Amino acid sequence: MPALPRLTGSDVVVAPPAGGPGNWAGGPSAIMFDSSVFLAYRLRRPIGSGRGYANVVARSSDGVHFTTVAEVTRERFGGASLERPALVVTPEGRWRLYVSVATPGTKHWRVDLLEADEPGKLGDAPALTVLPGSAEIGVKDPVLHFDGLRWHLWASVHPLETPEHADRMSTWYATSPDGVDWAWQGVALAPRPGHWDARGVRLSAVSVHEGTLTATYDGRATAEENWEERTGTATGALGPDGLFGPLTAAPAAPCGSPHPPHGLRYLTTVPGRLYYEVTRPDGAHELRTEPVLS
Q1: Shortest CA distance to 12 belongs to which of 59, 66, 54, 71?
Q2: How far is residue 247's CA from residue 171's CA, in Å, rounded to a whole number?
Q3: Looking at the predicted structure, is the pLDDT value of residue 1 above 70?
């Protein structure tokens, strides 16, 4: 199963913009490229003070200390808020940043794509909506995998039939020949009634080895736990058609912060290192990293 945080021996990568609840640094997406770690993440202030105001792309030679190479703000997309980005490099060497954008005055989310020939140019790249959602669903927080033939994507989908229940989420699975035009294949992971993830589930990272998929995911039991999800694990398998089937959640208890309300979410990995967003003692969220011990 995927490694989960131990919370000891970890380092703060990015501090929140201020102290207290609603101030967050996190939502990381990390990749290795040319012996460097590239990290995309979201910065957020409380509701009424800016919400998710920026996505940042940064580079590090040691996996701990990062230098910003690009930044985009919510105003760039006409959005009310930004959430977790997804950073990938295509086989052709193109850099892509998938940005989750909240539609003003609604509970709707969509995903836009920025593409450039180097990471420092992502901040000026034109935006293309690739996962528009609909009047019935909002879509955000994609996780991507390229298998050499096609792109696979898992995204958090929120039903929008009633605003008071729009926090509910399941993870849907999609495929694409180019990472731009996507076809939904079905629900990959759904909430489990009576469990710690009964209200919502959202994949945060995937790893594929010899046809077996292992994943980490965020979950919560109630609407009150929104924004303070904890992290669990799940597994799936590649079918004979080249598509991944539904995932099965592990029975183990989730991993959370020792500080109430115990949020630990958006875990992502590169070889030998974890990155995650975690609740601090003052209720703010910070982005931390720790090595994976063999």
Answers
A1: 66
A2: 10
A3: no
Distance CA 140, CA 85 (A): 9
Phi and psi at 285, nearest 5°, equal -115, 135
DSSP 8-state class, residue 144? E
pLDDT in tens, 83-101: 999 999 999 999 999 999 9
Percent of the chain with pLDDT over 70: 99
Give the 3-state secondary structure of residue 163: helix
pLDDT in tens, 25-69: 999 999 999 999 999 999 999 999 999 999 999 999 999 999 999
Give the residue from 62, 122, 69, 63 showing the smallest Cα distance to 98.
122
Determine contact, residues 72/54, Cβ cutoff 8 Å: yes
Q: Is 6 helix (H, G, I), strand (E, B) or coil?
A: coil
Distance CA 210, CA 212 (A): 6
> Sign of the CA dihedral 89, 91, 93, 95?
negative
Let me know: does 124 contact 109? Beta carbons within 8 Å. no
Q: Tally Cβ neighbours within 10 Å of residue 210.
A: 5
Q: Are 205 and 216 within 8 A, CB to CB?
A: yes
Residues above pLDDT 90, as percent of the chain: 96
**Residues written for the chain:** 294
d(CA 247, CA 214) in angstroms, rounded, equals 9
End-to-end CA distance of the chain: 13
* Cα gap 206→213, rounded to integer Å: 7
pTM score of the predicted model = 0.97
